Amino acid sequence: KAGVTQTPRYLIKTRGQQVTLSCSPISGHRSVSWYQQTPGQGLQFLFEYFSETQRNKGNFPGRFSGRQFSNSRSEMNVSTLELGDSALYLCASSGSGRRTDTQYFGPGTRLTVL
Amino acid sequence: AQTVTQSQPEMSVQEAETVTLSCTYDTSESDYYLFWYKQPPSRQMILVIRQEAYKQQNATENRFSVNFQKAAKSFSLKISDSQLGDAAMYFCALVEQGGSEKLVFGKGTKLTVNP
């Protein structure tokens, strides 16, 4: 099976812009989670989608949003970008939807905000 | 809220030697799962090993094994016969069966393998 794919791999944006990141889970996986990774804060949970519904959300401002499509592909959007949004954004998918399932990660999207 | 602590920001080991990475956690749930993930410089996060809290037997996966001490809330990773390809950031993570049901990560341990 193909692994989790994320596009684009690298992005450079300026403050105030918005950005959309995409994640395609492993075939058959219905749960997609998003994480932000920074040197200072480490890995922080953003949100999780299962069968097109947001099932869980981390402590991030409303500028961070996401959605999931019927084919389980997911997108996350960050509006009004700030310098502090510069990070590696990781997407992970899991199979049956139980939260204790192993999550398989994509390669990430490196976002730089100038 | 659950927390995961990795007290060793950096570790080094000689090739072919054994190294142990430490992880402690806190949770109010009795049913939870623990993971070790590896993130090489290429940045792809890879599952190393998984442990169900209800299982007393320590998980093993080839050269990787864990020492799971439930009462002490400790979950260390032992890497035997270290190889150059083991060099990476290692993250300990926890998810509760109940509670918040989010995967919570430690800050990570950077492992260097010296030839």
Topology:
The complex is a heterodimer of chains A (114) and B (115).
Chain A: E1 5-7, E2 10-13, E3 19-24, E4 31-38, E5 42-50, E6 53-57, E7 64-68, E8 74-78, E9 87-94, E10 104-105, E11 109-113
Parallel strand pairs in A: 2-11
Antiparallel strand pairs in A: 1-3, 3-8, 4-5, 4-9, 5-6, 7-8, 9-10, 9-11
Chain B: E1 3-5, E2 10-14, E3 19-21, E4 24-26, E5 32-39, E6 46-52, E7 60-61, E8 64-69, E9 74-79, E10 88-96, E11 104-105, E12 109-114
Parallel strand pairs in B: 2-12
Antiparallel strand pairs in B: 1-4, 3-9, 5-6, 5-10, 7-8, 8-9, 10-11, 10-12
Describe this structure in words.
The complex is a heterodimer of chains A (114) and B (115). In chain A, the strands form two sheets. In chain A, strands 2, 4, 5, 6, 9, 10 and 11 form a seven-stranded mixed sheet that branches. In chain A, strands 1-3-8-7 form a four-stranded antiparallel sheet, with no helix packed on it. In chain A, strand 4 and strand 5 form a beta hairpin. Helices cover 0% and strands 53% of the residues of chain A. With 114 residues, chain A is mainly β. The radius of gyration of chain A is 13 Å and the shape is globular. In chain B, 0% of the residues lie in helices and 52% in strands. Chain B contains no helices and twelve strands. In chain B, the strands form three sheets. In chain B, strands 2, 5, 6, 10, 11 and 12 form a six-stranded mixed sheet that branches. In chain B, strands 3-9-8-7 form a four-stranded antiparallel sheet, with no helix packed on it. In chain B, strands 1-4 form a two-stranded antiparallel sheet. Classes of the chains: A mainly beta (114), B mainly beta (115). At the A-B interface, strand 5, strand 9 and strand 10 of A face strand 5, strand 6 and strand 11 of B.
